[in-house]
Known about the structure:
Helix 2 runs antiparallel to helix 8.
Amino acid sequence: MMKAIVGVLSPLHRPYSRLKKATVGVAAMASGLLASLPAWPESPGGEPLEISVAAPEYWCPYACDSGQRRSGFAVDIARAALESEGHRVLYRNLPYGRAIREAEEGRIDAIVPAFRQEAPNFIFPPSAVSLTEYCFYVREDDPRRYDGLDSLEDMRFVATSGYTYGATMDAYIANHLKEKVTLIRGSDVSNRLRELVKIGRYDALLDDRLLFESSQNSVGLVNAGCLDERHPGYLALSPEDAERSNVIARAFERGLNRIRDNGKLCGILDEYEQSSAVVPELQAAHCGRQE
Length: 291
């Protein structure tokens, strides 16, 4: 879910004026310094928390329809980690832009998975729950392939507004908006990207490889090459209540270590037919298999 942020045209990345004294602690978290901060108690009142988490339903298999049995492997990992610490997770679906705003303003606790660059003032645990690779997709009869920025010279493509694709690609997109690149937002974006390429409105789409390969709406499109940079996705916690978010972040980190050690994390990945490679720093050996 930026160094050169595509979403500069989006309200998702406006300044965070509401952060007051919590700013220092939040900035430290966003820099991965959570582990160096003093430990908070289990919860502000010593009681289990109800933790509200949101994500778009079209992010399956990372995050899926909240009304279905399987919520998505990133959501299930976050839920299992936090529930192992005695907390309760309430998951709902929201478009990504709205989810960021809701969390920013403290109406929900977290979004998952999200990139640090897309929510720079949020609070992040040290460990990620997913790893994203972005690729270009073209119609199967189109011979064009992506092989660096020069190969985009005669390729018009469409992508998702508010996402970061890495510094190099973000800068390219910002410099070629409307001329060669179109960004769209809203609901069910991934399917809309595919349809726009299938009907010939654009030459290619840029999308998450796992989302694309998990979709049933990928027929007629082929992988035309992927970006070099990979992006870890985190449980991104609201900056509005830094103490509460710090408590959740620490509980998540403890719980993640627990479900990794007891095999539950690998069991979640097995249920979604995913390898250990989709979770950063998780080795195949943790799951007792070779990949």
